[in-house]
Design a protein that fits this description.
The complex is a heterodimer of chains A (543) and B (275). With 543 residues, chain A is α/β, with parallel strands linked by helices. Chain A folds into two domains: 251 residues, P-loop containing nucleotide triphosphate hydrolases (Rossmann fold); 245 residues, Rossmann fold (3-Layer(aba) Sandwich). Chain A is 40% helix and 25% strand. Chain A contains 22 helices and 20 strands. In chain A, strand 17, helix 18 and strand 18 form a beta-alpha-beta unit. The relative contact order of chain A is 0.10. Chain B has 275 residues and is mostly helical. Chain B has one domain: MetI-like fold. Chain B is built from eleven helices and no strands. In chain B, helix 1 packs across helix 11 and helix 3 packs antiparallel against helix 4. The longest helix of chain B has 37 residues. The two termini of chain B are 20 Å apart. The chains are: A alpha/beta (543), B mainly alpha (275). Chain B: InterPro entries: BP-dependent_transpt_permease, MetI-like, MetI-like_sf. Chain B: This is ABC transporter permease. Chain B: Its main location: membrane. Chain B: Keywords: Cell membrane, Membrane, Transmembrane, Transmembrane helix, Transport.
Chain lengths: 543, 275
């Protein structure tokens, strides 16, 4: 069968404006080629900056701000989109090629009903009458497994959940019966338990409608469930391109092998429970409006060990960290640290109490003052807590920089000049500078690429071995829990569902929710999705 | 920083401002005649002796313009700097403290803003002794209410960022948070506002002088000169337009420089890229 989409030697350039220098042109995609048949799915995978979204958008002959396609061909049924004029492109976009964005919540207009937005592009192109389009939307809502499909279109975006919105956006893309859909990380922003439903819905819809798709993601396990072919990209170049089976089971390139082995993170031996360093006793907390976010939480962090707090977004795990730091005083309960009661409000704590508990944020970008250099950021804790100044301070900062494997060349750099992983390392060094006994880590790796995240985790583990620091590690990723935790706390809607040593929480018999969470984590295995769905069906039939 | 990177508009602004400051500093050397010296007939046209003609009392207009730059620039600059110091300090304190301090300061600020500036200034200046420092202080306090509004808005924006939270959790005091964490990240909008406020200060001073409450005669100041010569306009004599033009030119020059500074600070290394 003839290729529906052929991309030949695609080159994409952009103009960058480095501060203090003249603008210059750089090439961000260096000659990428691939083919896609009707009804097939090609997975584009790579780290951030690999150019995968840029390549995906080129199938719509579109370049994001400042980006332009400088060479090559994008052939849709033999017609080169790059040579088409504006009018020709408009007829293709939204009709023959559609796009599903990562954040459906930001992509829908909150002032219009979902149903109207789903059929809008189809009507705009005059492909169907309003009645036909509505019938088509209804059919799509059905095959995407949306609840109450008859009335779903009458709802507004804020009335449905994130996972439902993402499916609604898929319906919008499928509505005009396109030949090709570009999915740009459609499940990245979703919780694992939601992701699995959306993945199944997308896969089902693609099969039902016989549409071809480009599926962009950074998660190899996800793409393995849905694609026929996989292309691994790095720095705008193809690393490896082949059928899904070959890529997953017999990868040729070292980079692909690294990507696959990251998912199979080594399990660390869980240690015997040591004495508690921090105890949270029957803590409840609510926001100013009286909305209760934490219900009667009791747990403890063992000294020199790691407690992982797992849960979906909205489960209250970050709020728990805020309560421990004293930013949000609890309404009930108490917190004990090293056998001392901690004052509820951070303002009432002594400087030494503050020093002993440090926090690492999810977004290192916003956690560091962009107008301070790395040296100032790390050095401030040294001056503030230990009164170090001048050369002594500088020497200690250098030591800390060595400790986080960054070297002294970074002393005078600003955060904007660092990569995401480097920023997170500096944040770790800042916490370390205070010589704390407990570090609260609020999803420190979830914004990072898998290989970079693995480096950060290794660093944290090494530091724990060296300094005997305890971690309270907040995450939604079960793989990380397996890799680093000694004990585990599972949270759901502000309540503690399960708490104990890792060996008892992550092995049968499971708590129901823990079980669901464990089973929803995509595995690097072909046919995993089908297997999970089949088990689910059996279970629901059994009930 | 290379000189050739400065855009042409900024150069024009810089030259204009330097010219005005040069006049102010070297007034006795530059001015052909004395500030208060009556040298000729009333409202003489421009000629070789009097390059811009003479004013309503027969004083040389050019000399008075040069001397006037002194008072005008000094008072406007002093008032702007003072109003920014007051406004930024109070607004940042409010934004960092929140709660009752924020409420108290903000409502008091609203109260001050609800009184028309000019009337407030007229009343206060009429009661207090006529004195340069009092004039500066009154202008600064009135202007600081506007700075407070902007300062609180931009500081609130930054105060909720995680790096400020991190500083609070470190146990840092308010002064550190205000001056080290927040201020460097709010410079761009504040600089832009400074340029505007400086220009407004010149205009406000001119207004006050025009009404007889600003700089007292016979000292020269640009606003006062407009007032002195306004009657000439009826007779087709343009003497009032010259100091008026000087005020307008300086205001434009200041804003051209500020526009450039704004672009520069927002693209600074480590900037947040806003602006």
């Amino acid at each position: 069968m003839a290729n529906m989409l052929s991309v030949r030697n695609l080159r994409i350039g952009a103009t960058v404006y480095p501060p203090g220098e003249a603008p210059k042109d750089i090439e961000i995609v260096h000659g990428v080629s691939f083919d896609l048949e009707r009804g097939k799915v090609l997975g584009l995978i790579g780290e951030s900056g690999a150019g995968k979204s840029t390549i995906g958008l080129s199938a719509l002959a579109y370049g994001r701000g400042g980006v332009r396609i400088t060479g090559g061909e994008v052939l849709l049924d033999g017609e080169d989109l790059l040579k088409a004029d504006k009018k020709g492109i408009r007829q293709i976009r939204g009709a023959r090629v559609c796009y599903v964005a990562q954040s459906a919540a930001a992509a829908f207009n909150p002032a219009h009903k979902l149903g109207d937005q789903v059929i809008e592009a189809t009507l705009e192109h005059g492909l169907m009458t309003r009645e036909e389009a509505r019938a088509r939307a209804l059919y799509l809502f059905n095959i995407l497994g949306l609840p109450d499909p008859d009335n779903f279109g009458d709802r507004y975006p804020h009335q449905v959940s994130g996972g439902q919105l993402q499916r609604a956006m898929t319906a919008m893309a499928l509505c005009s019966n396109p030949e090709l859909i570009v999915f740009d990380e459609p499940t990245t922003a979703l919780d694992v338990t939601t992701q699995i439903d959306v993945l199944a819905a997308i896969k089902n819809a693609i099969e039902e409608t016989d549409t071809a798709a480009l599926y962009i993601t950074h998660d190899l396990a996800v793409v393995a469930q849905i694609s026929d072919d996989i292309m691994v990209l790095r720095n705008g170049e193809t690393v490896e391109y082949g059928p899904v089976q070959q890529i997953i089971e017999a990868p040729q390139e070292d980079y692909t092998k690294a990507l696959i082995s990251v998912r199979q993170t080594k399990q660390r031996e869980a240690r015997d429970q040591s004495q508690a360093l921090l105890s949270v006793n029957n803590v409840s907390a609510s926001y100013g409006n009286g909305f209760k976010v934490l219900h009667d939480i009791s747990l403890h962090v063992p000294r020199g060990q790691t407690l992982a707090v797992v849960g979906e977004s909205g489960s209250g795990k970050s709020t728990l960290a805020r309560v421990i730091t004293g930013l949000l005083p609890p309404t009930d309960g108490s917190i004990t640290f090293a056998d001392e009661d901690l004052p509820a409000q951070h303002k009432k704590r002594t400087r030494d109490q503050m020093r002993r508990i440090q926090l690492i944020y999810q977004m290192a970008d916003t956690a560091m003052n962009p107008r301070q250099t790395v040296g100032q950021i790390i050095g401030r804790s040294l001056t503030f807590y230990f009164g170090l100044r001048g050369r002594k301070k500088k020497e200690r900062v250098q030591e800390l920089l060595d400790e986080i494997e960054m070297g002294s060349g970074f002393y005078d750099r600003y955060p904007a000049e660092l990569s995401g992983g480097q920023k997170q390392r500096v944040a770790i060094a800042r916490a370390l500078a205070a010589e704390p006994e407990l570090i609260l880590c609020d999803e420190p790796t979830s914004a990072l690429d898998p290989l970079v995240a693995e480096g950060i985790l290794d660093l944290l583990m090494r530091l724990q071995a060296e300094t005997k620091v305890s971690y309270l590690f907040i995450t939604h990723d079960i793989a990380i829990v397996r890799a680093i935790a000694d004990s585990v706390a599972v949270m759901l809607q502000g309540r503690l569902v399960d708490f104990g040593p890792r060996s008892s929480v992550l092995s049968p018999p499971f708590d129901d929710y823990t079980d669901l969470l464990l089973k929803s984590v995509p595995e690097m295995e072909l046919g995993w999705l089908e297997k999970v769905l089949a088990t689910r069906r059996m279970e629901s039939a059994g009930n | 920083m290379r000189l050739r990177e400065i855009p042409i508009t900024a150069w024009i602004g810089i030259i204009g401002i330097l010219l005005a400051f040069g006049c102010a500093i070297f007034a006795p050397l530059l001015a052909p005649y004395g500030e208060r010296e009556i040298v000729g007939d009333v409202w003489l046209a421009a000629d070789a002796h009097f390059l811009l003609g003479t004013d309503n009392l027969g004083r040389d207009l050019l000399s008075r313009l040069i001397y006037g730059a002194r008072t005008t620039l000094f008072v406007a600059l002093a008032a702007s700097v003072l109003s920014f110091s007051i406004g930024i300090f109070l607004s940042f304190t409010a934004a960092v403290s929140r709660g009752i301090i924020d409420q108290g300061l903000s409502r008091f600020n609203d109260l001050m803003m609800s009184i028309p500036t000019l009337i407030f200034a007229l009343v206060v200046l009429a009661v207090l002794p006529q004195n340069l420092w009092i004039l500066i202080a009154v202008m600064a306090v009135l202007d600081s209410t506007r700075v407070y509004r902007l300062g609180r808005a931009v500081a609130l924006d930054v105060a909720v960022m995680e790096f400020v939270e991190a500083a609070k959790l470190r146990g840092e005091g308010k002064m550190w948070i205000i001056f080290r964490e927040i201020l460097p990240n709010t410079l761009s909008p504040l600089l832009a506002e400074f340029g505007l406020r400086f220009a407004f200060s010149i205009l406000f001073l001119s207004t006050l002088s025009f009404l007889g409450l600003g700089i007292q005669p016979p000292a020269a100041d640009w606003g006062g000169m407009v007032k002195d010569n306004k009657d000439g306009i009826i007779f087709g004599i343009s003497a009032a337009l010259i100091p008026g033009g000087a005020i307008a030119t300086l205001a434009i020059c200041v804003n051209m420089v500020v526009d450039w500074l704004l672009k520069r600070t927002s693209s600074l290394k480590g900037g947040r890229g806003d602006g």
